[in-house]
From TrEMBL, chain A:
Naturally occurring in which organism (per UniProt): Desulforamulus putei DSM 12395
Molecular function in Gene Ontology: nucleotide binding; succinate-CoA ligase (ADP-forming) activity; succinate-CoA ligase (GDP-forming) activity
Assembly behavior: Heterotetramer of two alpha and two beta subunits.
InterPro entries in UniProt: Cit_synth/succinyl-CoA_lig_AS (IPR017440), CoA-bd (IPR003781), CoA_lig_alpha (IPR005810), NAD(P)-bd_dom_sf (IPR036291), SUCC_ACL_C (IPR005811), Succinyl-CoA_synth-like (IPR016102)
HAMAP family: Succ_CoA_alpha (MF_01988)
Keyword Chaperone applies: no
Name under which the protein is recorded: Succinate--CoA ligase [ADP-forming] subunit alpha
Sequence positions that bind CoA: 17-20, 43, 96-98
Catalytic activity: succinate + ATP + CoA = succinyl-CoA + ADP + phosphate; GTP + succinate + CoA = succinyl-CoA + GDP + phosphate
Physiological role: Succinyl-CoA synthetase functions in the citric acid cycle (TCA), coupling the hydrolysis of succinyl-CoA to the synthesis of either ATP or GTP and thus represents the only step of substrate-level phosphorylation in the TCA. The alpha subunit of the enzyme binds the substrates coenzyme A and phosphate, while succinate binding and nucleotide specificity is provided by the beta subunit.
Annotated family: Belongs to the succinate/malate CoA ligase alpha subunit family.
PANTHER family: SUCCINATE--COA LIGASE [ADP_GDP-FORMING] SUBUNIT ALPHA, MITOCHONDRIAL, SUCCINYL-COA LIGASE SUBUNIT ALPHA
EC number(s) reported in the record: 6.2.1.5
Lineage: Bacteria, Bacillati, Bacillota, Clostridia, Eubacteriales
Keywords tagged on the record: Ligase, Nucleotide-binding, Tricarboxylic acid cycle
Automatic annotation (TrEMBL), chain B:
GO MF term (any one): succinate-CoA ligase (GDP-forming) activity
Record domain ATP-grasp: where: 9-222
Gene (name only): sucC
Name of this protein: Succinate--CoA ligase [ADP-forming] subunit beta
A Pfam family matched in the record: Ligase_CoA
Residues binding Mg(2+): 187, 200
Pathway field: Carbohydrate metabolism; tricarboxylic acid cycle; succinate from succinyl-CoA (ligase route): step 1/1
Function per UniProt: Succinyl-CoA synthetase functions in the citric acid cycle (TCA), coupling the hydrolysis of succinyl-CoA to the synthesis of either ATP or GTP and thus represents the only step of substrate-level phosphorylation in the TCA. The beta subunit provides nucleotide specificity of the enzyme and binds the substrate succinate, while the binding sites for coenzyme A and phosphate are found in the alpha subunit.
One GO cellular component term: succinate-CoA ligase complex
HAMAP family named in the record: Succ_CoA_beta
Amino acid sequence: MAVIIDKDNVILVQGITGKQGSFHTAQMLAYGARVAAGVSPGKGGWEVHGVPVFDTVAEAVEKHPITSSIIFIPAPGVKDAALEAMSAGIKTLVIITEHVPLHDELDIMAYAEKLNVTVIGPNTFGIISPGQSKMGIMPNSIYTPGPVGVVARSGTLSYEIAYNLTVNGIGQSTVVGLGGDRVVGLSFTDVLEKFERDPETKVVVVVGEIGGNAEEEAALYIRQMTKPVVAFLAGRSAPPGKRMGHAGAIIERGKGTFASKVAALTAAGAKVAVLPWEVAELVKEALEG
Amino acid sequence: MKLYEYMGKDIFRREGIPVPRGKAFFSPEGVADFVSGLPSAVVKSQVLSGGRGKAGGIKFPGTPAEAEAAAGELLSTVIKDLPVHAVLVEERLQIDKEYYVAITVDGARRKPLVIASAHGGVDIEEVAEEHLVKMHVDVHAGLQPYFGREVARRMGLPPDEARQLSQLLVKMYHLFRTYDAELVEINPLVVSGNQLVAADAKITLDDEASFRFPDWLPRVEERTEKEQRAAEIGISFVELGGDIGVMANGAGITMATLDMIHHFGGSPRNFMDAGGGAGTEATARALEILLSTNPKAILVNIFGGITRCDDVARAFARVKETVGIPVPIVIRLVGTNEEAGVEILKQQGINAYRTVQDAVARAVELAAGKEAI
């Protein structure tokens, strides 16, 4: 078991002929993920790493039993690509692209809500259920199957944490990247609910950062969870009023501070690690406890 | 990108949202002439930070000559570290009531959010929650007049004002959507006689949508020159003032790297997220920006996913061979194409670190002037 994607996941790659789409298709195939088809308008009939390319999502879906799509389209075309995938009946969508306009994100999420589609991203590293399937740009080598669910706002920081878990002999059930934008498809709570229900997941790791109140909202749900939660937060030393890379990573008017998030998570019963490499230790304690 | 009030009011005027008669001036010349056509005037410095009234940035001159003098005075001031480049000279409104109305995005609900209050004219953060009307907009339905009538009802407005507010909200929402705004805010929205008028205009546009407005791009400088250079190559860079130059890939890991530098007793010079998938060219230019800040040491923390370690290593090799790297450099390199990247660095005499704690600790030592091991 895993959450959102498992070994039966059949993947479509939108933007498969581009530099990133092609490179990460090869990486996903190397991981053993079932990439069945790609879409690149005007390039129907091509093959990329042995994967057939179609002009439209509708055509790809007619010819292959696709369950999910990953989007590597440049930002101006993401809304079109996402709505195309959803219109073709795809129910799980991973949007890797960063710099997607805010209003396009609003349109994508409104359509996803209407059609009951799970959207991961935009501006995410994707999702991986180690040993089963991978839709994303994360390095293949740093994961191993196991009992820990990881949900993160940020990509590379989650690599750091997952890598540390793996070298400490602790595997992961699923690792999900929410995405760094102000409007993304899933909240921490959405993913925590899935981990809470997943029998294979025993401990959950939340990787958050300063800005907004996503971690504070997550804390409300963590209170009710039966599974232990370990958290790590980036931005302890960030000065107020400066946007630290992510659109949402800014302390405004004293809100979204490191202290407020640590307080909320601690009060909810989560263990908060001070340094990234302490996460593995806290997870180990939680698994043994 | 935040727009100045006068830019916001130009857009309001174009969208049919009532604003006071007014004009922006970049020098005092012509102010007296313009003011002589108004019953009474206000001169407002154009700055992006709030609280300009308290900072002395708004003047109420009695005569056209006084208005021109006030404009000259304001144009030579610096408010909260930013020089004033423009003043907005406007008709001074009779103010009977002050309301608040804004449209923004609620990230948690993934929907546009209208916030309104009959208690406007003050910092909205200080208005009690029970005096705020908050209603989400369904982007499929759009903001129709009924929505504005309901907002007005909840605000407790009389019928004539309710009708005007409803029309105003429809126009504000149209602007919000067509200009790709993150925020459209009017505070105060004043009742002057029996007219609703936008006495202020605060618009923030989404930088990510600027490709949709190739011919119409207001230039508002909020960045330092180096931050601007970084933005041009798609890299997020913030100057912080310590002595260790930092480059990492990904906002979260960059923030965590700064935190770790603090933890080991060091002090970062900057935040630099070289981004996902930065190639050799972009990485080399980012490194040149870092070098131009004259750090005592440079710490690079790359966990390659979409970024490939060999691309990053090649960038360092190129900069080292062409312009040289005159300060100690510590590179932590793991992830996609790691072996190739480590090998390229080795040929340059740079040993890459695998664990971040070793790399950060080393960079802090080097910046403190400790001998190389």
